[in-house]
Hints:
Layout: H1 2-5, E1 8-9, E2 20-21, H2 28-36, H3 41-47, H4 53-67
Antiparallel strand pairs: 1-2
Helix pairs in contact: 2-4
Amino acid sequence: MSRLLERITIDDEICNGKPIIRGMRITVQTIVGFLLAGTSEKELLHQYPILEKEDIEACRQFTNRMMERSFTIRDLAA
């Protein structure tokens, strides 16, 4: 699994520090959003030819790992 997660990087200079795939300007959020909307892996790979199947799996794994953590949700603005 760690090899898959090596595909996900965070760089403050790219996409405002959001998790991205292999240093490209494609965020994990974008890919997961498409998957949740019902877009197939095949269609994603067609829409983003630079992506690899392992990138999509890495997004899934990353999201799963993030949900294993504890978070406190609070209002950002009153």
